[in-house]
Each structure stands twice: as C-alpha cells, then as structure tokens.
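Hi W.,

Here's what went into the run:
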Amino acid sequence: MRWFLVAPAVLIVVALTIFPLGFALWVSFVQYDFALGDEHPWVGLDNFVENWKDPVWRASLWRTIWFSVTMVAVELVLGLLLALAMLRPFRGRRVFMTLFVIPLFISPVVVGGFFDLFVRRPYGVANQLTSWIWPGDVTIDFSQDSPWVYIVLVIADVWQWTPFMFVILLAGLAAIPDTLYEAADLDGAKPRQSFVFVTLPLLLPIVLIAVTFRLVDAAKLFDIIYSLTRGGPGTDTYTTSYYLYQQGFEFFHLGQGTAGAWMFMIMLLFVSFWLVRRLLKPLEETSL
Amino acid sequence: MSDEVHHDPDMSQEEYMSGLRMARRDFLVKSGLAAAAAAAAPAWLSTEQAAAAVKASTAVGQARDPIAANAVTQAKKYSGLSMGRINEVGPQALDDVNFSGPLWQRLTGIKTNLTEVPFAQIRTKIIAEDLAKSGALDSVEVSPAWIPDFADQGVVMPIDGLIRKYKAQATIADLHPLYKGLARYKGKTWGFFDDGDVWALYYRKDVFGNRRLRAAYKAKFKRDLRVPRGWDEFNQVAQFITDEMAPRVYGTGMGRALGNPGNQFYFFQQFRANGGRFFNPRTMKAEINNAIAVKTMNQILAQNKASPPGVDKLDFISSWGLWLKGQTAMIMAWPPTGRISENIAQRHKAFATLPKSKVVGKVGYARVPGANGEHAGAFIKCVMATSENQDAAYLYNQWATSPSVSLQRVMLPYTLRDPYRISHYRAPAYRKLWKGAAEYLEALCEAANDAVLDLSMSGAGDYANALDRAMTSMYAGKDVQDALDEAKREWDSITDKLGVAKQRASYATFLKYPGATNKNTVRKLGQAVKC
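Here's what came out:
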C-alpha cells in the first residue's frame, strides 16, 4: 500500500528528472547532430573535447566567471548599503522599500529589452543622459563598444538583483539583537567598530547564503544577454549558457551542447559544494 | 528599371512644390476625396482579391487556373481536418490569418492552425518538430538555403509523386528562371517556390534631383550625381549625402543587427559582385578571408559610416522605419520596400508594423550597385515528412502557390509576399496598384535576372551564423583581416565536421543553380526575362 501511495511521486521524478538526465548523459557520448543524420554512433569523449577545443566556449567560460563575480560583488555592496540605510525606521521607508524590490518582479527578458531601448542608438536616452555630465557630444554605442557593453550588462543585472541582496541582508541585520550593540556601546565601541566587530561577523552566514544563491544564478546568465546583445558583437558577450543554447537549440549540435552542459554543471557543482561547506562550517563547529 | 533621375534636374524642390499649389477650396475637396478613396481602397482591394481567388479556385475558374481549382476539388475530401502551419510572425503571418487560412477553410472545410515565430526560429521549430515527431506541423515555410539540409535529413518530403497525382506539373511553367530550380535538390522537388525575395536599390528621387546637392557633388567630384552603379560609387555618394544632409537625411542605413536580418546576406551579395567565391570547389577550403573579402568588408564598413548612429544594432524593420520617415536616401532591400514606400500596406488596418510613408511618389528603383542583387531568404512551401495529413498539406501548398491565387497573395496590402511568377510581373491589376507599380515590377524582374543566391548547401545555417557573428565583431572595431581569418577557420571546421567529400558534392550542386555566382546569373545564362 505504501509503495502504491508514493508511486505517483516516484513516477514523476523518474519521468521528469531521472530519464532526462540519463538521456542527456547518453546524448553527450554519441553523435547527436541534426546536420549529421539520424544515426547516433558512440563517439566517447569527442563531444567534450570539441567544446574544449572551441575558443568560443573557453572565452564564454571566462566571461561567465567574470560576469558572475563582478555582478554579485557589486550587488552585495549595494544591497548591504541599502539594507543598512533601511534598517532604522524613517518617514517614507515603506514606500522606498516597495520601490526597491519592484525589479525583482520583472522578467529578466523584459529587463534586457528595457536596457536595450535605453542604450540603443539613436533613440535610447543613454547618450543624452551621459552628455549632461560629460563635456561635448557623447557618441558611445553602449550596446556594442567595449568595455561599455559589459558595463551595461552588469548594470542591468545589478539593477534587477540588488533588491534580492537587500531583502536577504535586511532580514539578517534585523535579526541581530540590539543588546549586542548596546554592550558594544557600553564598552566604548565607535559605530564603525560596532559594524566591523558585531554586524559583519553575525551577518556573514546570511551573506554566504545570499552570495551562494546569486552566484549560482548569475553563472546561468542568459535572459539579459538574449534580449540585449544576442551574444554580440560577434561572440563578445557569449556566456556559457548562451553558448550552450546556441549549440543546442539554434544549431542543433545536441551532442556537443549536452556535453558542454554536463561540463558546466560539474564546474558549478564544485563552486556550490565549496560555498555550502563554508556555509555549514559555523553550524558544524557549534554542534561540536 | 531605370538608373536615371526622374525629376527635372534643374528644378529645385521649392519650384517643384510651387507647381502643386492650389486654391484652399480645391485642396479641401480633393483631400476629402483622396482620404475617402484611401480609406476605402484597402478593404475594397482585399475583398476583390478574395473574390478573385475564390473564382480561380472553383469550377467557374477551372478553365482559368486548373491548378488552384483541382487542389480545392481534391482537398474537399479532407473537410473537417485541422492542418498545422508555420509562418514568420508579423506581416507574413497575416496572409494565413486574414486571407489564405480563412479562404482555404471556406473552400475546402480544412482549418489551418498557425504557429507564428521570427524568421530564424522557423528553421529551429521545424527541426525541433522533426526530432519530436509530434505531427503538429503539416505545411511549412522553408528558406531555399535550408532545403539541402532538410532534404538530406528527411525533414520535408519530396512532392514529385503528388505533383503527378494532382496534375500540377504546369505550376512551375511561369516561375521566373531564377526561382524555377530552387525547390529542386538531388533530382527531386521538395516544395513550391513562393516568395521572390530579390534585393533592389531603392533611392530617393527628390534627393538625387536636388539642385543644390547636385551642384555641390559636381563641384567636389567633377562628375554628375547619379544613382550609384558600383559599391565604391555607392559609398562615396552615401557619405556625401550624409555629410551634406545629416541628421535630416543620411546617405544610407541598412539593418546590420546580429541575426536580423543576418549580415551574411550583405557579404554574400557584395563578395560575389566583387568576384569572390565561398570555397575552393576542389579542396573545400573557405575563401572568405582573401583580398576580395577584405575589400568587401571595408565597403560594408564604409556604408555603416555613412549611416545613422546605431546602425550596427539596426534591425531590418527599423531600417524600413528610417526609410519611410525620409531619413535615408538609399537602401538595398527586399521588394516590400517599394510597396510600403507608397503606403500600399500602411493603409490597411491589419498592418501596424510600420509608420506611414513620407516618401510617397519620391522613390526610384534600380539594380543594386555591382548589378548582382542578393536573392535573400525567401520561402518555399513544403510538406513535413512527419505530417499525418500529407495530401491535404500538399494540396494547400499547391492551391496557395497556384498562378491565380499567388497573384492575389503577392498583391495583398498587409503581407510581405513578393512577386515571383512572370504572370505576377505582367499582371495588369498589379501594375495599376500605384503610379510607379509597373516600373517597380519591371525592376524586380530585372533584379532577378542578375541576382545571386544565398549559399544553399548542407550546413548553410552554420556558415551563415559564423559570418554574421564575425561581421558584427568587425562593426565593433575588430580588425577586418583577423575577424575574417577567424570566420574562415570556423567555416573550415564546419566543413570538416560535416565531411569534406559530402560538402564538396553539396557545393558542386549549389554552383549549378542559376545565380550561384556572378558569372552564371540568369542573364549570363541567356535566360533573362523581359517583363
């Protein structure tokens, strides 16, 4: 009877998770390419090697790392500053907080489209706004010229995801008991010292959680690239996810694309594993 | 077709306008009548076209167009069926939504379920359907460049047997010679050709007739300003107009965004007009990084320089927007440019994609510089090999592309289907659509006589994407030779992956099509048509 009751859940997991994973594993070791026909001979590690040999794949990997680290670092700093600013009650605080979290509810594709309109020449307002603070005519193509295209992508992601950091960090800050600050105050600690020796250590686990979530998410950066640059100019803004999408769903080199996806997933697993270990370390030490 | 300027070169714009002055009362009366006529024309036109298509498709029309009438008679036995179609989102799909779909259902009782996707995704959706084999698609729009892959992989089915079964052999008789062979591959027919997507040069007669501009050009270059005949002249004239008239009017401005329409089209065209070839046909090593390719890319970059800011992100619909607002003086573009310039499409309420034209009556048509316009994109109506309704899908395709029905479809105000039959170019009804319509149709026919084709061979999509990406990196400042070297390496890698012997055979097949190079155009093969 108990097996009968769990059977639907088991079937769903097998059909939607185990089977696709197994199928994807098989696809990555066979020739599975629309242009090469319906037969799928075993090719061993060839699909994996093809990815490593492809300079576009390697560049996309480094770019993904750079984007992820830069975006999450900026979001962390801005999110923390915002959370500190919003910690104490003041008039209009609720209105500000509501405005700050709105970007979280917008689809990343829409965010990309919005920034595309913002920076696109000659209609976008980016150049005009820049010309207010920069002498003379500004004729930068923010969606093409290096390094501006990277900066715009970072700004778009930061605009959308800083509120996520803000919300998590605000919750963490609010959970620190006031008594600790009062004790520090009695010991003669200055505000900066309270922040460094009280706030930061107690906030660190929350920071790690927020950074882990955001790093894993930022590593999958796709939507904004798709709607803002399409990976261009050339392949200059290809992230690994965008590269894999192209290989799999535009060129139908499914074997190579799937092998690339496995490689990328294993890399992400290592990063996640390291971050989770850092996250659990204080808990393990406490339990000991 | 004409390369000549149509205005009196000695007449200024002010003088020209003063000749059009009229009394206020006359103006009001004439404006009212014109507005009423303009408002009524599209509805009347579409109704007339539907009536003509029905007439051609029924027993009454049997004598006029047996291909359409037979398709309808035979398809009636599938009444009640639902047929899956895929078409390009936007104006192209409006044909299915407003015209062909409802008419086909009315005539045969077969309903069409339309999937609308952007052009590049038509290919991916069809491949995905082939892999999934769900039977969701029956009749599909396929670009000629995809036919070799789709035929080799069994995505679409050969229709020679069905053509014989339904006695439709005559349907290809009056296709323009450029289009006759495009649905043929490895000795079989894979669909019915359905869109004459040949590029021509559209230019502003008023700009080229501007007396001040002409004098300034002559003073600077010691020769008359004329519609350019070569790419160097085009770039010189475009830059001159930009220098003189920007930001009000730029010399040119064509869609250079990545993948929209796809920069490979520009390269394919100019590279071959300059005498280039894609591969060494013996070794199959790519030749897209040689001196001709570098020259071609420098010409393209010079065109960008003479274009409005942001041209490297300009999609082709936006390039039409600039043209219609009168902000560009020349564009090399698809045939709808002629119709939208005269507001033929924008008068219809179904067409909301583009602004009203400010260049009505001011547009001239010419061959593209270097003479060889690209036949870029286009569509062939095919039947999916996975279709469970193959006969019904085939009969729909036969009906829609039949001489009489296709004529009505290429005249529809709100879609982007373009003339491709000799009977289309010569149709009196089309030639009367606007004052310059006859000249427009003749220009398209002549452009097809000289056109070169998209690279149509196995792996065409991959080759095109690699080139498109390389070109946008050059727009962003990458060294031309370096970017072309990289694109060549990518092409060679694609060739190696697909198999050199297979690609050699596929390229050899492509080279046999009229228009594969600038040395075997329809005209050079002695098959040119006078329309």
